[in-house]
Amino acid sequence: MFKKNPNQGQITIMDPCLNFPKYIQEVLQKSWAPYFYQHIFKNINEERFSVLFSESYSRPNAPVNIIVGLLFLKELNGWTDEEMIGAMYFDYRVQHALGITDFEKERICINTIGNFRGRLYEYSASRGVDLLEEEVLALTGALVTLTGMDTSLARQDSFMISANCKKMGRLELIYTTNTNMVNQLAKLNEAFIPESCRHYRDQQDKAGHIYRLKKDDVAGKRKQLLTESLQLHEAVPESLQDSQAYLNLARMLADQATQTKTGVVPKENSEISASSLQNPSEPEATFRKKGKKQYTGYVVNAVEARDEEKALSMIIHHEQQPNTTSDVELGRNSLEADLEGVEVIANDGAYYSVETVEKAEERGIEMGFSALTGKKASENQLGVQTFTIDENDQICACPAGFAPESSEYKAEKETYTAKFAKKHCDACPLLDNCPVKEQKKFNTVKFTEKTLQADICRAKMDEARFKELAAFRAGVEGVPSVLRRKYAIDHIPVRGLRRSRIWVSCKIMAYNFKSFFGYCRAKAKKGEVFVFLSRVFKPYFASIPGANLKFLCCQ
Predict the structure, then answer these.
(1) Four-residue CA torsion sign, 324, 328, 331, 333
(2) Is the pTM of this model over 0.70?
(3) Cβ atoms 137, 338 nearer than 8 A
(4) Please, what's the largest Cα pairwise distance for the chain?
(5) Helix 110-127 × helix 81-90 angle, to 10°
(6) Is residue 207 part of a domain?
(7) In which domain, by residue range, is 89 found?
(8) What is the pLDDT of residues 155-164, one digit of tens each?
(9) Is residue 546 a part of any domain in this protein?
């Protein structure tokens, strides 16, 4: 049964803080704890999570705002679950940040945290709604409003994060998938295991099939194991065909081999898809090669708004997907998100597509691209954007101003074509740099809408505005660096896309709160925010006898 935390918003007379010496109270007031209490804990929308609990009369839940607050503090401080629970019971700053004054009423154990994560996962899996991500976005929006941050200028970048699974070679992947299926069959009935596959039950069997194998024997062993995979697949009873072991086996067979009338034929390495099964313990992880590095896991796309005047940055949108998701798709997804106040997004060239530019224009957002992928015009050659195109999508003039003899636009292929008289081209000073191609009767130019838009963007990149956006976008490279070093985003201790999203959302919230707290402390040191802090913290400090708000703000 869902029940809101009845004790939020007030410091009781039993709070130990009231008995602290004045200078200790001032140390507490300058720490992160009151900022977290006032702007994160008190703003957590407990009602959002009410759908995770039974509607019937039963034992009420532990306070949701305390649980969610603990998840954020865990990532903020790099704690394990055990360290997080210990900090809640023994660190007064944590108790203060979570409004805890009576442990008898608000007792939380480590299983409470695990059960809550489980409910989040199950709700996301069944409804497709990530409640924690929604809460992070709402809290970030509140911080943006509170600080008066200008979010008109934003930048985005994607980065790979590693899955919490071992990287497997093809032989080990096939062997492990087969073993899992054999073990599943053994739980039901040993008789279901084909005779040729009973060796998987021997714990010493793996070394002989994988680690002690000579190089020349690898191809033959791969075919043997895949043949056994097919035999297992055919032997699985209907009652187990919904199990993860069977689904992995079927997927692995399709990924790794082609079935013929005479058996299975292993695929060549080049034929294996990047979306193929990488490890049966984490079937959602995919493979991608970016630059010179290989990744097995997921990709995170982050849109960071930056207020240069306030020197304040926050991640206002993030998305986690299999790492085979392209930057173009991630960029289009971010344009569908709630980017209130954003007027400009600086991107890497990998985000570019005609559809992305058109969608951004529909939303009134300017897109800048620091570099563009794809074919580029050779040096000194004019881009196709130098041809004049009228409102009917017809090429009406070349770069030198000559009208074509004929012009055509094919809407189904989005292709522009025009033919120019040779007498005009022969006398044209731009001929050596023009993209027209000489033919028997005419000189012809032909290009697609995608090429046109790319050349338009490349031409703009030479302008001071686009150089400025390119320099601004470079700053977003620091986001993945901080998330890796400070918040260990490559070491998420769970497997699966939906489960790992819980950790990623909490790390994003920790990143944003750290940025907010740093901004507040920097302003306080300059003595510039007495009015700001007095408005923000007046209700909080009014409840603490002897708290000197003006003294605190001027420190």
Answers:
(1) negative
(2) yes
(3) yes
(4) 96
(5) 130
(6) yes
(7) 16-129+498-553
(8) 999 999 999 8
(9) yes
Q: Specify if 338 maps to a domain.
A: no
Positions of E strands within 7-162: 153-162
Among the ranges given (34-43, 315-324, 519-528), the one the predictor scored with the smallest mean pLDDT? 519-528
If asked whether residues 512 and 440 sit together in one domain, one would say no
- The DSSP H or E segment spanning 446 is strand 443-448
| Whole-number Å distance between alpha carbons of 463 and 452 | 18
Which of 226-235, 362-371, 478-487 is the least confident region? 362-371
* Phi-psi map region of 527: left, alpha, beta (phi>0 left; psi -120 to 50 alpha): left
Same-domain check for residues 208 and 260: yes
Question: Could you give phi then psi for residue 404, rounded to 5 degrees?
Answer: -80, 160
In sequence order, what are the beta bridge partners of 114? Answer: none
Whether 533 shows a pLDDT value over 70: the answer reads no
Does residue 476 surpass a pLDDT of 60? Answer: yes
Tell me which of 281, 315, 332 is where a domain ends.
Answer: 281
Q: Does residue 372 lie within any of the structural domains?
A: no
How far is CA 115 from each of CA 62, 196, 242, 301, 355, rounded to the nearest angstrom? 11, 42, 25, 28, 42
The number of distinct structural domains making up the chain is: 3
